[in-house]
Each structure stands twice: as C-alpha cells, then as structure tokens.
Design a protein that fits this description.
2 copies of one chain form a homodimer. By secondary structure, the first copy, chain A, is α+β, with helices and mostly antiparallel strands. Chain A has 16 helices and 40 strands. Chains A and B meet through helix 7, helix 8, helix 13 and strand 34 of A and helix 7, helix 8, helix 12 and strand 34 of B.
Chain lengths: 679, 679
C-alpha cells in the first residue's frame, strides 16, 4: 500500500510515474512539523531498528548512525564522514520485527537524513524546500515494499547485452593510437574486452561533441576498426558547454536560449574543464531536445554508448566567486604573518568549487515557471540523462544504448545507469562499492558499478585483483583510473594472467548474470539485495554488511582486505560455494547453513548458490559477441532435478517482453554436487 | 643474534643503547646497492611472507602491499594511502615458515619502505641519507627477536600508575571554571577519572610555559584543588617558542643560542599556533638542558604530567614560503579565468605547511658538527621528549612522571609514551588504533593510546561507546576531541551510564592491566602482540588483523563496526570469554579453539583469557588513588589450580626491580568457569 502526502507546492520531478491522490489525514508513524519553511519528519527508532536505502551514499548497508544530505556533489574523497555523493536517492526502509515502513521523499532540493546521529534513538528528516511529496509504503515484506516503490517510479533502464562485457577506461587515452595499443594488448593476451571508454582527452579543448582531428583523424573508420575487434568506443560527455563563439553547441545553445541564466538574465557561467562554460537548462524541454540532438553526429559515426559526467553540476568556480577570492588574497598579502588569514584564504579557495552561493545564483525556465537552481539542484544530472537518452533514442529507435551517468536522481534510472563516481584506490572502497549496490538497486539503478582498481591514487596488483573479483558480478564491469596515477590495465602487472582468468569467469557467467539482471529489471526486482530481504526472520542475516544476494538464488562475499588469506561468510541456508580461479578452474564445495571461515588465495573468489538451484556457465569468449550460450554447464548442489528460466534475447531490443524470452531449462543428475552440461 | 652493518657515517641517533661492532661482510638476505648517495636494500618476498612492524603507520598489522616513508609529519587525515604519520619506527619483521628476519634501520632521515607495493614479490628499502646503521636480528621466534631488539634499544618508559586512569581532554578547555565543571560532572555522576589534559587554550597567546592569569588565577591552588578530587592536570607543551621580545623563553633561548639557525646564521622561524616561532635545537645538549629547565615552574606548581605536541616539527609556513605564495597569488589575480593557475595557487597554499624546502633550510649544532635538519628530521620530536624528560627528572628525581608525545623516533620510548596523534571520529580509526599498537610495542612504545571518540570531526554516541571499549585495554585511556567538534565527554550522551559502566571495567581491571604492563615493560616484552607471536605455527592466527594478544594470557577483539550486533573471533586455543557490561556485570563463557561469531550489544565487549589462566578484577573506584587491590576476584576457566604473579608497587618509583614487586597468587577452586575471591 502506498500513501501520498503533499506539502506545499512540490516541483514535479518526474521521479514517479503513477499519479496518486494525496491523502488528507496525518502522515502515519512520523511526527511532522514545519519550521521556518522546512518540513521536518521525526521517527523514534527502537534499539534493533535497521534502516536500509539512500542509494549512493557512504557507510554501510544499514544506514543508521549518520547524517546524510541529498545534495549532489562532485566529491572524490569518499570517507565515512561524507554526507553527500553524486546522486540523491531519497528512499528509505525502516525495519524492525514489528514494523516496516518504506518512505520516499520526492523533493529535488536539499533533504537531510539524520538517522540516529544526533540521537541514536531518533531519525530526523528535513526538507529545506518544504515543498514535497511524501510516499509511505507498507507492503508486508522488504522485497514487496521495494517492488511497489519500483512500480511507482517505473521500469529500470535496460543496457544492451554487450555492456555487460569488460570495459577498459582511463583518463589519459589521448588518441586512436593509444586506444589501439590497449585493445591490441588485450586481444593478444586473450583478455576478454568489449569496450573502451574515452575520457575528456578525446575532445578538442574538452569541448563536448568534438573530437581531436589529429588524435582521431577518421572517427568513423576508427569506430569500424574497433567494432571488427568487437570493441565499442564509449565517449564521455560533460554537462558544461564551453563559452566560445564559433563553437556550434555554444552558438546554437545561445540562439535557442538553452542555457541557465542568472537573476539579471545573462547566462550563468562557471569554469569546468574547458574553462568558462554555460550550463544547459536540462529542466527545460526545449533545451533537452536541443542537447539530445547534439549526440547525433557521434551516433552516426558509430558510437553506441556514452557516459555523462560533471553533471551535479560540478563547478570549479564562477568568475564572481573567484574575483572575491583574489580580492581577499590581495588583502591577505599585506598581512603576511597572520596565519588565520592565510587559512581563511585557503578555505576561500577550497570553497570556490560547487559553492552554495553559485547554486543560488542561477535559474531554470520550467513549465512551472522560473525556478532558482538550488530548489531543484538534485534534478540537474537526471535531466541531463533524460536529454541524452531522448536524443539517442531518436537516433536509434527501438534499440538499447549504453548510457551511464555520474549524477542522478530517482527517475533517471529509467534512462540510464550510473557509475559510483570517482572512488580511490583504497581497499575500503571495494567494500563501499559493494555496500552501495543494494541501495542503488532499491531505487532502480540496476546497471551500475564502481571504478575497478580505483580512480584516484595508485592501485596495486593485489588491490586491482580483488576489485576485479567484485567486478565479475557488477553489471557495469569497468576498470578506470585517473590521469597521473599508475596505469592499471591488467596486463601491466606481474600476475596479469590470473587477473585475465578472473575476467574469464565474468564471460562464462555472463549469460546467467544477464538473465538474472534482465529478470530483475523486468520484474521491478533487485539484482543485488541485502541478506535481510531474503531472510528477514534471521537476526544474523539482518545485519550482514559484506555479503549480497545476487539475482534469485546466488550470494556474493567479496574479499576486500589486503593480505587476507580468506574471510568469514555467513550462510543463511545451505549453499554450494563455487570457488573460482578461472572460467574453467573452480572448486565446488557444499557448505551448511551457518558461519564459515573460508580460505581464498589472492586470485580465488566465491559465488554461493542455494541448494537445489543451478548456476550456469557458458564456454566463454573474448567478447560478448563471441559468447556461445547454446551449450551451458550447470553447477549445483542438488537433491533432485531443478528448473531454471534462462532469459535470452538479442541484447538490443528496447522493449523486450519477459515471457517471450524465458527458456525453461531442466537440470537433472545424481543428487550431490555436480556439473551438468546442457545444450 | 644481532649483526650490525654500517653505511657511510651515520648520525648517532641514540636509538640504540648497546654498542656493537659493525660486521665487515655482506648484509645477509638483502641485495644492497648504492645509487646516487642512497642505500637501497632489496628482498624477495615469497607469496606467504608476512611483514610486521613499522610502529605508527596506516593499514594493517601485516604491512605488506604499501609504501611507507619514515618522515615525521603533522597529518590528521589517516587514510590508507598515507605514507607517513607523526613518528618513525624503522623496525620490521619478515616472517615466513622457513625464514624470520628482524631489521632495524637506524637512520634519522627519510627512509622509504616499499613493501610489495610496486611489485608484490619484492621489498625495497631506501635510505635517502645513505648514512646509516643496519641491524639484522635473528633469534628463533618473533617474540625473542623483538625482545633482543628491545634490549638493544633499552627499557621502555614507565608512567606512574595514576596515568592508567581515565583521562578527559579537549581542545577548548579554556580555564579553571571549565575544567572544574568537567570534573564535577564526572564526580557527581560517579564516572571514574584521574586526569584532565589542557590543550593550547590554557596558555597566553599559545606561548609555552605560560598560563592565562584570567583563566587560571592561581595555578598552584587550582592544582591542589584538583588533586583533592584525585585529578591531575596535564598541560600541553608545543615545540615552537614564540618570537617575541620580553617573553622569557624566547629571550633566554636567544641568549643561550638554543634555536635552530638558517644557513645565514639567523634563527629559523615559521608560524605555528603562537604566530612566528623559533625552534629549540633539541639535538644540542645545551639547548635540551635549557628547554628541560623551562618545565620547572609548572612542576613546582604541582603538575606531574605533560604532553608534547607539534614536535615533528609542525610548521604552518615559513615567512619566505608565504611570500612566494602571495607573489604567485598576485600574478594569478591577473589571470582570472585560468583554472589551472587557480589550482596551482591552491596547491602552493596547501604545500606551505611542513614543506621539504623549509626542512632543508635550517641547521642543528650537534657534537658531530652542524647538520642540516632534513638529514636528521625524524629525531626532532624524540629529542624534545628527551629534553622534557631530563628536565622533569631533575625536578622529580627518582619519581615517575607522565609524559607523552606526538612525534617520536626510536629512543624516545625510554623517556615517554606517545599518543597516536590527531585521528578522526571514524569507525575505521578504532580498528587502525588497535592495529598500530603491536608495531608500537615492538619499538618499545608500550604506553600509548589513541584519542578515544576521535579527535577531528563529530563523534556519535555509538562510536564513542566502541572507542571507549578499546580504550579499556589501552595503557593511555584518553577521551580527546578538537575545537569546534561535538563535545564528547561521556555525560553528554543519552547512554552515558552505560559508557560509565565501560570505564568501571577499566578501573576494576586496572591492577591486573598495570601488572601486565609493568611485567612487559620490565622484561622487554610486548603488552600487545599480533596473534602470530604466540601461535606462529597456526596459519590462521598469522593473518588475524583485528584481535591482539594482551599481556601474558589475554586477548582482545574490539567491535569496530557501526550497527554490528557482534563479530567474528578466531580463538587459537580454548579461552574464557568475559563479556563485560560493567565492572560487576559480565558473562563468563568458555569457548573452544576455532571460529566463533559472538554477539555483543552496543555496551558489551569481550576480554578473552587462556584456559587455566586467571584475569583479576578489583573492586574498582572512581580514581586510581581509591582503588583497592588487596581484595581481588579471579575469573578463569580452570582445570585445576593456577598461579599468577601480580606486579604491585607504589606506582611512582622510577627504577622498580621486577622481582621485588611480584606477588604470587594461587587461584584454586572447582574445575570449570569460576569467580574466585582472593585477599
């Protein structure tokens, strides 16, 4: 059951696709107050209460004990104290044995969630706008509550099947020679690969929709060459449009009045990679149309996938703020030995980027009239994704496309995936990446992943190996790293063959993982779930923070600690452990319900499968194009026969019907642990 | 067996107290090369090789897989990528079943330890100075190798017994009214307390050895008042001396030529808290004498303990570097829309503090002649500790004093303890604090602890509770926090009574923990050890990263994850778990060797004791003065009788003889788990 409550005049965010009538009575469970325009909800928390949700955010699967702020931010340093990351996903589940509440706060401005930080026994949710729709969802189980929420917000984005292949990326692939060498190394060493991402290096002066003619002399031909190698190029597109006369997107954007404006009517500008930029008014339908059409030339040259970046939006500084800062610097220069003044200058410089003042200084022209940016801030990236998706769909009607974005707000899950932004080459970030997945899935972001190996800082061989092992199960399996960091294509490391073996597991599992993904997406279910969702009566399962259910019947438990020789795993029921070393090299170990310490060498990692359910492996291949899913090996711990519905399609059709693509497979053999070949 | 190898002309650091003759043959195990003045040692690492040591540093107990740099730094953000913290402890143990090597690098300059970061299979140790003594120690077992190293470097500092009491601290206790209120709240609420630290707020303009007359109108009387409450005041002393004519330490320091000088012979100055300061030349014996005597007035007014801070040394900036920076700012102001320039300015400002250039710009006058600071950088804090300790000992001959420092270098473990510096209110930092302890113990830093609750950022109730539980077992049990963060005296939280109960456990265990500490210190043993030291044949124990052996027969396993309902514990043998809630409220649970998932409420935490060995509790008290250790309760899981040697002394004598203070206690009763009252 969903109940909707409306406060003030909410801005229509597009998060929700079902029109509900607002209730007139009081909001159940919560104490609601209005203070200085804000709406504040309070809920007493019992000691055993667990809080799931909030999508992309730091800390654990259980969000209790910290204050989160929905305020999309370009922020690389994802430590446990951070309140905001790149996306806002205002969905929460309050769970305790006698009470389960789903809550969605449909508000595109700043919403803070003090989930027991100030007082362990109280959650305090504050909408700064005070204009919002609140949805309270109660539906028997955690799974069903999420499913009902997902029906409310509409079906998740479906990527093409090739997007489940391994993707190599790096900020620093400057031209086709560079890309060709990377692809050649993968192919020569038989490292499976399906795509290469191009970061901002490919553009002319970081200008969207351009490519360096010297570095990419024939873009179309190069795309074709890559496709012969079964490689898709995936260029980046940023939010800002360089302010430069003669640069077509700038000229046409101005002419179409497609940019956000300041109070005085002039376009708002701020520096990002290209220098001073204007910012498309993605909240305006005309501007979205204009921007979406800018993708056409790239699509016509053969591109089938993009990633959208810097769309929180990220602002390095506005000229106004920088001038203030330099004024301060000039004054400070005369007070040389005043360290407080020096710190204050430092703090002004640090505060230049993404400043609240700048976000309050420009406006959107929407169907609801002119609205100041900060009131709808969290929508910006989502609406960019919508613009891109609509533009791509106009070019490739009926076909799926790859699109993933850094910034997001509920609603954009229908148009694209997201990656988890600029993580670090930290062991801590393997765990964090895993912990974010179920929250993202709750809000419909099924196609997601983290930068494997870590984006910022230097990776190490063992860290990359463990990141890749998590990556085997992430829908988006991308190795990505920042300029000036250690190169992290796997073939640069002593044990690259072992890492290649890890990637072969992904390709062997790909038809099965794709099937699990598509079934979850088409049924409004989660691909990754906290164990609590499947075992709500099991008090131990409720609090497991480092294992996830995957698809219908599997569980993952990544190894995320350096120098670990193994790890603890809690099995909420009997399961088969497949301890992988390579697609064709694994142990099958039946394990009973309960606690286990399991040993894993550096290049070993597990997948767990419920008793009497199969996991399926295909023969693998070096690209998704070459996968043969007509002959499969079923692995299971069986007492009798089992049936599995394998989802298969062409990997490209935009609107597949689930029932038309399910292939019932019957797995039978002698009871016990077995491998069984199907065809 | 210890072998010494000398390269070049090492500076005598004072780390080692035994004079050994240098070997003439090649260094065993290591490939040694000289490259551009550096000395480089290389060692191949087998896959199973574990590396212990390096004292105060980030990451796990097993240091493999990262590059560490011994270069003392004022650095608050202890994330896993950091290479340096406040102290340098160049002792390592390379352990694998067929080989164990202890290595000590006696070099006060920059030494880097690439322990398998660049290549997992190789350790590369680089001395930038190229002048160093190398000690290779091989002695049968990990424990014996450490003991032999500890004999080489001399006996650990012994704090007075009262220093094992609970200490409340905060940057922000501005005057006696403030301190009095904190003490009153503890006493009224029966929260045990033995000391209050005064941070820089107590001084006049942050000038060492001054106190604000308005805030502390009668320092001596206030000390007496506090002592009647069984509270010791523990003021901070920083390294820098404010450059201000008329300020006595500055005037006398100048007159005595006690400050570090630049190339041109003028005193080196840099800004720290008081503004521009001169820096005592602690490497000069005269300057140490002068500085040590500055403690006398405070001691005469009743102070018995100090903490030494900012002694890496921390430099906010030198006037020269700041001028360069402002010059850059002025130039940049004319290129307003050049974000690279803006970033470069930001990076210059960020680089002002603790810059290598500044550390290369001043000199020490030593018995070995004038030496540039960077060549001996890591000695600075240790020599400040030596100066303080010598000064205090001159005033309080034959008596123990409390002294703990932020910066350290092997050798200073004989003169004082250390705290782990400015941590954060992060869950991650509970674990890190624990993981640093055994490495510190290896180098003789037995009296140590972290800022409980976290120094920077806001703590939360549950975080503080879990920090305190670790603190129960840390020799230095101090709650400390930074200005502008949430106040974190325990009585400010809803569940303060439960936290008080946690502190009562410390006081009940205090005679036992003190006994274990003193025995370890007087025997050159470790108070905290990795499990590997006690169970080197147990491949599981070798890799345990979140449990520590404590004293002769105990083990701790702190809970360091938010919202955890328990944790996994590996028992390398049968042990009794004492699950504490309060001094008089605990469960006794015998557990068999192996893996266990153990449940702990937020205010529950365990101590494990080997079978047939007792842990002892006294009746507790609200200060160490009031503890009654004449009647003790023994807790154990016994098969028969057991004997325990309880160390007891007056808690103050400077040179206790171990044998004179051991009291043999015989514990007997019916086999099984029991409580047994002794008197």
């Amino acid at each position: 059951m969903i109940r909707k409550y409306t406060f003030g005049k909410p801005f229509p965010t597009g998060a929700v696709v079902r029109e509900l009538k607002a209730e007139t009575g009081p909001v159940p469970y919560f104490r609601v107050s209005r203070e200085e325009g804000r709406v504040i909800l309070r809920l007493d928390l019992s000691p055993e209460e667990i809080i799931f949700g909030l999508g992309e955010s730091v800390r654990g699967i259980n969000k209790r004990g910290h204050t989160y702020r929905s305020w999309n931010m370009d922020i690389t340093n994802h430590t446990e104290d951070k309140a905001s990351l790149y996306g806002s996903h205002n969905f929460l589940l309050f769970y305790r044995p006698d009470r389960m509440i789903g809550l969605y706060v449909d508000d595109p401005g700043l919403v803070s969630f003090d989930l027991g930080e100030t007082r362990l026994s109280e959650a305090v949710i504050t909408s700064e706008n005070g204009d919002l729709d609140l949805y309270v969802i109660e539906n028997g189980s955690l799974k069903e509550t999420v499913r009902e929420f997902r029906e409310l917000i509409g079906r998740s984005y479906l990527p093409p099947r090739w997007a489940f292949g391994y993707i190599q990326s790096r900020w620093g692939y400057t031209g086709e020679e560079n890309v060709r060498a990377v692809v050649k190394s993968h192919r020569e060493k038989h490292i499976p690969l399906d795509g290469v991402c191009l970061d901002i290096d490919y553009m002319v002066d970081f200008k969207n929709f351009t490519w360096k003619p010297s570095a990419f002399p024939d873009w179309k031909r190069f795309n074709e060459e890559m496709k012969r190698e079964h490689i898709r190029l995936i260029p980046i597109i940023d939010a800002g449009i360089k302010q430069e006369k003669g640069y077509e997107p700038y000229d046409t954007g101005l002419a179409r009045d497609a940019f956000c404006r300041k109070e005085d009517g002039t376009p708002f500008t701020a520096a990002v990679w290209p220098g001073l930029c204007c910012f498309p008014d993605f909240l305006n339908a005309d501007a979205r149309k204009w921007f979406g059409d800018l993708y056409r030339p790239l699509l016509e040259e053969g591109v089938e996938g993009f990633w959208n970046d810097m769309n929180e939006p990220s602002l390095f500084y506005s000229p106004e703020a920088l001038r203030d800062c330099y004024r301060q610097a000039l004054e400070q220069c005369e007070r040389v030995n005043d360290y407080q003044g020096m710190w204050s200058l430092k703090s002004s410089l640090d505060g230049l980027a993404n400043s609240g003042k700048d976000f309050r200084s420009f406006y959107h022209r929407t169907e609801q009239g002119r609205i100041r940016h900060d009131r709808v801030h969290n929508l910006y990236g989502a609406k960019m994704v919508q613009a891109s998706a609509e533009g791509i769909r106009r070019c490739l009607p009926g076909r799926r496309y790859l699109l993933f974005s850094r910034s997001s707000f509920t609603g954009s899950h229908r148009d694209g995936g997201i990656w988890q932004g600029d993580n670090y080459s930290w062991w801590e970030h393997i765990r964090l990446a895993m912990q974010m997945m179920p929250g993202l899935n709750m809000c419909g972001y099924l196609f997601s992943g983290c930068d494997l190996g870590g984006f910022a800082l230097n990776t190490t061989e063992d860290l990359l190996a463990r990141f890749l092992q998590l990556g085997v199960f992430l829908p988006l399996m991308r190795n990505h790293s920042a300029l000036y960091t250690r190169e992290q294509e796997i073939y640069r490391f002593d044990s690259w063959e072992k890492m290649r073996d890890t990637i072969t597991v992904r390709y062997a599992l790909l038809p099965f993982l794709y099937s699990e993904f598509m079934k979850a997406a088409l049924r409004n279910e989660m691909y990754f779930r906290p164990l609590a969702f499947d075992y709500p009566e099991d008090s131990r399962a409720l609090r497991v923070e480092d294992q996830l259910m995957l698809g219908e019947d599997c569980m993952i438990a990544p190894i995320y600690e350096q120098n670990a020789g193994g790890r603890y795993v809690y099995l909420p029921e009997d399961m088969l452990m497949i301890r992988f070393r390579a697609a064709g090299d694994y142990d099958l170990i039946p394990l009973e319900k309960g606690d286990h310490y399991l040993e894993f060498g550096l290049h070993e990692f597990p997948l767990f499968v419920r008793k009497n359910r199969p996991a399926l492996l295909c023969a693998g291949g070096e690209s998704t194009d070459e996968l043969d899913d007509t002959s499969l090996t079923a692995l299971g711990w069986m007492e009798g026969a089992a049936e599995y519905d394998l989802y298969r399609d062409d990997g490209l059709q935009a609107e597949p019907k689930l029932e038309e693509h399910l292939n019932r497979i019957r797995v039978e053999g002698k009871p016990g642990v077995f491998r069984y070949t199907l065809s």
